[in-house]
Amino acid sequence: MWVSAEISLPPGLLVGCTVTTGGVSAGVYAESNMALHVGDDASAVHKNRQMLKQQLGYEQIQWLDQVHGNHCIEAPFTNPHVPPEADASWTRHTGLALAVLTADCVPVLLWSEQTAAIAAVHAGWRGLQQEVIQQSLAAIGEPPAQLCAWIGPCISARHYEVGEDVWGHFEACYPACLYAHSEQESKRLLDLPAIAQAQLHQAGVTRVYQSNWCSFTDPRFYSYRLSAVK
């Protein structure tokens, strides 16, 4: 149900992501779906979330109602039963886990090696275009040079072809993150994790770790695009 990031971490800090196996969801959601908004049986999702808390050893996980925006909230949220509408959260509370839901979008996990500050960011192309990473760094209020970042499993550029309505937002600022499409001149291959890393570096976060796990090709992870073509 859980795979840890393959990096060295401070004592007591867990960084990683869930995988598709080990839960109780069935059918197209098998087995460890954590999302309540995709049509899965709610009782199965709640059971998966409870199993995750037990595996990680946390009493509370801050979930979000994600809207592909750039709002970052401070956790714990006042009402744990109603997730806040946001695409990122941060906290300095120890014993609290932060979570974002992705199935091709980019999960960015941030932590300070100087303080207890941590953050979890959901960054799809809309979030990257709206600078959700930069907004989250501002909300945390820690010097960016003291932060580390892990970019988790997401769709790789090789499998993320988009039209100008998407790649046009990034052409001027991140031309090195766009690649020509071999068959359609109007399409480009967009490198979302590279854009996320570039934005982190531009903001002053220099210690950035890429998982290099592709959600489209790695069966351990959910992929919206892959499920759409099956």
How are the secondary structure elements laid out?
Elements: E1 2-4, E2 16-18, H1 42-56, E3 60-62, E4 72-74, E5 88-91, E6 96-98, E7 106-112, E8 118-123, H2 125-129, H3 132-140, E9 147-151, E10 161-162, H4 164-167, E11 178-180, E12 188-190, H5 192-203, E13 207-210, H6 224-229
Parallel strand pairs: 3-6, 4-5, 9-13
Antiparallel strand pairs: 1-2, 5-8, 7-8, 7-9, 10-12, 11-12
Radius of gyration: 17 Å
**Termini gap:** 24 Å
Shape estimate:
globular
What oligomeric state do these chains adopt? single chain
Number of helices: 6
Instruction: Profile the largest sheet.
Output: 6 strands, mixed
Q: What's the total count of β strands?
A: 13
Strand order of the largest sheet: 4-5-8-7-9-13
Low-confidence stretches: none
**% residues in beta strands:** 15-25%
Can you put this structure into words, describing what you see?
The chain has 230 residues and is an alpha/beta fold. The chain is built from six helices and 13 strands. The protein has helices spanning 42-56, 125-129, 132-140, 164-167, 192-203, 224-229; strands spanning 2-4, 16-18, 60-62, 72-74, 88-91, 96-98, 106-112, 118-123, 147-151, 161-162, 178-180, 188-190, 207-210. The strands form four sheets. Strands 4-5-8-7-9-13 form a six-stranded mixed sheet. The protein has a three-stranded antiparallel sheet with strand order 10-12-11. Strand 11 (178-180) and strand 12 form a beta hairpin. The longest helix has 15 residues, at 42-56. The two termini are 24 Å apart. The relative contact order is 0.14.
